[in-house]
Amino acid sequence: MKISPPKNWRLKKELYTITLGKCQECGNVFYPYQPICPSCGSSRVERIVSKGHGKLLAYTISYQARDGFEKVMPMPIGLIELDEGVKILAPLTDAENIKEGDEVEAVLRRITADSNNGLIQYGIKFRVIENAKPNR
Amino acid sequence: MVAVAEVSLIKVDRYYEYSEKDLVIEAYKQLETKVKERIKPDVVIVSSGYIESIGKSNLSAVKFSNSLGFKGVKAFRVENGDNGGAAIYTAYSLLKSGLASSVLLIGIDKFSDLNSKQVNDYTAANLLYDYEYHLGLTVHSHAAILAKLYMKKYNVPYEYFANWAIKMHEYAVENPNAYLRFKADLKTIVSSQLIAEPLRLFDIAARADGASIVLLTEDSLAKKYTDTPVTLDGIAGATSDYSYDLTLPAIRLAMKELNYKIDDKTVIELHDSYSIIAALELEELGLGERGKSLEQLDSFQVNYSGGLKARGYVGGATALYQLSEVAMQLRGDFKGKRAVGEKGIVVSTDDLVNSSFIISLTR
């Protein structure tokens, strides 16, 4: 697993925050942000930062690793619907008692490390909000 | 009109002792024995998803052309992830436009040089967004989520998906060029290795090595090479983003463009990268009720090759295997389970069906 510092730096808003795009013409909200709406093609796109709060629609436990991710296997992965209406697939963390419908929040976590030079990759995972009140 | 003049394919397998070039040469030697005249293509197109990443080889079309004695020819590779239908579309376009009279399509991929976790890293490059790759996600995990959503929406147990593997292995037993030529029963499937829950080993396409070559020509030129050409009537394609509503817009749009009616006499080869994807493709094509398609597999002539599940999965070469198999079915010389009818389609997609090419053929 080789980590590219320039690429990570370039992707910092995508990897370290959930920066969404909101189309001023069609209203589409999407992730990750880009300056053209992938739904209607408009370039009138506002950049907004998600609150990082959402609902777990479905999840899987992945048992087959990718190169560089052996130490985090098995990896729970969830389909999350953010409060802003966007659905994204992301790793889950602190996931001992997860179930569909759980409220989740985004947290910054270590993702992997480059075995050649020790560089650490960080990124967003989601964890279940314990004792969350319904319809919060 | 465009004709499938001749086809060749080698048995899908793990060829530890052979390189990509060795496999292509083997497929080409087979092709040469079938044609009446020495092949002199105007253009050589390579369809490969991973020869650059796994095989560490660029300019593969130039290298293969030189190796096969086609110096001076126009040659290039079409990369479209696992969807080799893009290469067929390119060849078809060149022939229809008159820019070429004959195109040699070479499908090649070789997974067995690396282990599963290494291959997973390369296939994860097909995920649509950079952040997914960086977070360690896999294509398998996407498919697993789709399977979970499907089970919930249609209230089906995991065992429902086993219907696909059972049927594909049944067909593969009859296909001498299939990779996994053994029957699989329910007990074996439900107790096989978990890959991404609920998906098990038997829900996932069997990655292996292979090469398939197809000679496409102008209609008038085909008879020079063969007495039994198959007509490539049309090809349509479409793209889409991830869809979590259990529909496949890329297939729906392509079928609309192709304006094609499938019936029980249509020979079909579709891209069953996962049992869940097989179900969704069948349902989008109208080959089964939503939520029940994998219980209705005897209603249509689907994947008599054994499919990606059991014939085996060869990355970007898969579409050329599919094209060869449907052409052979229509000509009557397919060596496995025989279909009836005079028309067929190839449904070529990437593993999560964000890209499709659907190709219609007639005898």
Find the count of extended strands of chain B (DSSP E, 2+ residues).
Answer: 12
**H/E element order of chain B:** EHEHEHEHHHHHEEEHEHEHEHHEE
Distance between the termini of chain B: 13 Å
Number of helices of chain A: 2
Q: What's the overall average pLDDT of chain B, rounded?
A: 97
Strand content of chain B: 15-25%
| Corresponding CATH superfamily of the largest domain in chain B | Thiolase/Chalcone synthase
CATH topology of the largest domain in chain B: Peroxisomal Thiolase, Chain A, domain 1
Number of domains of chain B: 2
Molecular shape of chain B:
globular
- Give the strand order of the largest sheet of chain A, numbering strands 1, 2, ... along the chain: 4-5-6-8-7
Mean pLDDT of chain A: 91
β-strand number of chain A: 8
Instruction: Report strand order across the widest sheet of chain B.
Output: 3-2-4-7-1-8-12-11-9-10
In short:
Chain A is mostly beta strands and 136 residues long. In chain A, 7% of the residues lie in helices and 42% in strands.
Layout of secondary structure:
The complex is a heterodimer of chains A (136) and B (363).
Chain A: H1 5-10, H2 12-15, E1 19-23, E2 29-30, E3 45-49, E4 53-62, E5 75-82, E6 87-93, E7 103-113, E8 120-128
Parallel strand pairs in A: 6-8
Antiparallel strand pairs in A: 1-2, 1-3, 4-5, 4-7, 5-6, 7-8
Chain B: E1 2-9, H1 20-34, E2 43-47, H2 60-67, E3 74-78, H3 85-97, E4 102-110, H4 116-123, H5 130-134, H6 139-154, H7 159-174, H8 186-190, E5 194-196, E6 199-200, E7 209-218, H9 219-225, E8 230-239, H10 249-258, E9 266-270, H11 275-284, E10 301-302, H12 307-310, H13 318-331, E11 343-349, E12 355-362
Parallel strand pairs in B: 2-3, 2-4, 9-10, 9-11
Antiparallel strand pairs in B: 1-7, 1-8, 4-7, 5-6, 8-12, 11-12
